[in-house]
Amino acid sequence: AFHPSVRALAPALAGLLAALLPAACTAQTYDPTLAQARNALDAAERGEPETAPLAASHPLAGWVEYASLRKTIDTLPAADGQAFLNRYLGQAVAETFREQWLAVLAKREDWPSYRRVWSASVKSTALRCAELNARQALGATDADWTADAQALWRSTGKSLPNECDAPMAVLAANGGLEPALRWARIEKAAAELQPGVMRAAARGLPAEEFALANDYAAFVESVHDRALNWPKTPRSRLIASYGLARLAKSQPQSVDSTLPKFANALGLSEEERGRALYQAALQTVASYLPDSARRLNAVPDVAYDPKLHEWRVREALARSDWSAALAAIRKMGAEQRRDSRWRYFEARLLEIGGDKTNAAALYRDAANKPEFHGFLAADRIGAPYALCPWTPKTDAAAKTAVARDPAMVRAMQLYRLERATWAEREWNDALAHFTPEQRRIAVDIAQDNGWFDRGVFGLINVGGKSYPEESRLYELRFPLHHDSAIRREAAKHNIDPTWVAAEIRAESVFNPKARSHADARGLMQVLPSTGAGIAKRLGLPWRGGESLYEPEFNISLGTAYLRELEDKYGMTYTAIAAYN
What's the gap between Cα 138 and its chain centre? Predict the structure, then answer.
């Protein structure tokens, strides 16, 4: 029932599954101090005294203390908060506490303590505004203060937190919000479709400019004919283009009559007209409405982006208009067109049109990529799949050094204690000073500790940097666990075990405690209602939604459900979509 590409790939994946099993199922040794830390954390979070206090030298002593401080943070003496920060300076727990402590100090208006606790690493806009309040209260409204306040004013077109009201009022009173700054924020707010922010930013403008700014805001809110008499300036055209785009997004058909009227009156450029035409086309084509092709063709080239280029191809393919689909691919930017997906489809369309020579060349190019469409391209020309696993040889001493890194020790212990958010803080702290090689070793160590999603989120794109060669780290990127249960249930329901493993990776990345916003639970993210029905059909006892966190039970229900869906829809890829 698998697509030929999937069938051809299955033996390789099955072999990889067998090869990875020993590493993926490394047994964890019992750590009595970890059990003690669990008890201490639980007690601290309940606000109870510790029956067996952790030693100050324990890796998680700071987190236990943090959990305790959180219970009384509103009444915590300033000196105690400062002492905690000093004790754990440079650790993730200190930075986690710092932001919460700053919020408390701001509420108390304890500005001297706030300034002592402040760190430039804090990103919260509300806390940055509170820091401006602190400096102003302490008499430090100097040129640097003004520059920092103006930077916050310009930082977004959306509403600033309430904490920013006071410093922005001081900035305005001190003459720090000249009209140019107000107009800059008005234009940003228009781009964000925030008429309320536009009105607020306009309040300090001269009367005539204030009236125009408010009319601009009214237009963004609801298009009106007064704009036909606006001054023919770049700003008027910019604001009009945003208002027309907002209207086109909710009423695509409006562009046919509304856009020409305002474009002619204000002299809108092709780019400005394109904002409204783009929204009209996108909303129409995403709904596969009959007028999609006309609207797509009406969008000027300057307004196209990768998303709309893709929709133009999809629309033509949906109509089986092969020549239009080929033309749409060739209008893409060079980078998008080089993607293996579009290389494959361009080749397929050339092949349909009889140009087999050029099609073969594009297939060969796409087949160099170890991606789904690269595999499809390889199938078309009988080429091998571009699977080239990279299994770096890790020096034992290097792995030991990474494993003993203090932040890594804390991250692994916190994860095993089911404090995933805190664990991620420590993980990110460790990665901040790791080399790429150490980071890859860290992913391996995380999997030894049952933290499998680091192989998904800790490779290829990390900290704003790209490491494309890491896509070949299949052993780390595709972690495997619960092999015997997967193979047993797959055999029972006549399903390829690699499909089951792939579903688990996609649904939970092998986290048995995963729970979605829709209340899907466990490895295969089974809803309690679905699980109850499957258990009944299988003749298995149903012990409620909590039983879905038991790996083997979850795998048995999820695999049976895959079988039911494939039987119902007849095609594996449709069953995959239905499961999702």
Answer: 40
